Amino acid sequence: MAQIRFRQFRTLNHAEIVLAGALAFPKPFRGDERIMGLHGLTLTFTAPSATITFSDPNSQGLLISQIVKEFGIDSTNSLRGAVIDDVLYVVQATPSAAVALNVATSTAAAKFGFPTLPTTRSGTYYAAPSGSAPRFLSFQVGGLPGSIIVATEE
Predict the structure, then answer these.
(1) Cα torsion at 118, 81, 141, 3 (round to 10°)?
(2) What is the pLDDT of residues 72-124, one digit of tens each?
(3) What pLDDT score does 31 carry?
(4) Residue 21 pLDDT > 90, yes or no?
(5) CA of residue 14 relative to chain centroid, distance
């Protein structure tokens, strides 16, 4: 049986990226934080099929802004990254399905807070209101930040 869910977002950009099937990384990140030990490690995506190989030859650590740029130059140019409210998201450059990460084959997964199980993590892509569940139903924008309410059927 389908369920109606209501979600609250602070910005339209945040609502858009979540509805577009973005994968949210579990570990929160500050904008000035450096992630150490990523050089040569990978993130392997199964949807879309793409691999990110991180480059930090001087072992200075990568800023979150540098990591976001890495998603824009993946092996197939099919991903883009964004940080919203200290959460790193990866979404398809042209959204058409949820992003899925193969945790088992991604050597950098633990650095981003992904547990070893389940072996695949993915976002949820919400179809248009005329589509089948999971689908986007409606949204309401209030006058205050954090007052964007999105209804979905799942």
Answers:
(1) -20
(2) 876 678 999 999 989 999 999 999 999 999 999 999 999 999 999 999 999 99
(3) 74
(4) yes
(5) 11
**Shared domain check, 105 and 41:** yes
Exposure string over 99-108, b if 16+ CB within 10 A, otherwise e: bbbbbeebeb
Core vs surface per residue 139-150: b (16+ CB within 10 A) or e: beeeeeeeebeb
Helix H or strand E segment including 13: helix 12-19
pLDDT band per the 50, 70, 90 thresholds, residue 46: very high
Name the residue among 57, 24, 23, 60 with its Cα closest to residue 41: 57
Report the C-alpha gap between 59 and 35 in whole angstroms.
10
Q: Are residues 46 and 107 in the same domain?
A: yes
Same domain flag for 72 and 89: yes
Q: State the average pLDDT over residues 8-22.
A: 92
Query: How many separate domains does the chain show?
Result: 2
* Structure tokens given for 107: 């050597």
Helices and strands, counts by H and E, the chain: 2, 12
Percentage of the chain lying above the pLDDT 90 cut: 73
Domain holding 133, by residue range, is: 1-20+126-154
Tokens of residue 82, six digits = 């964004």
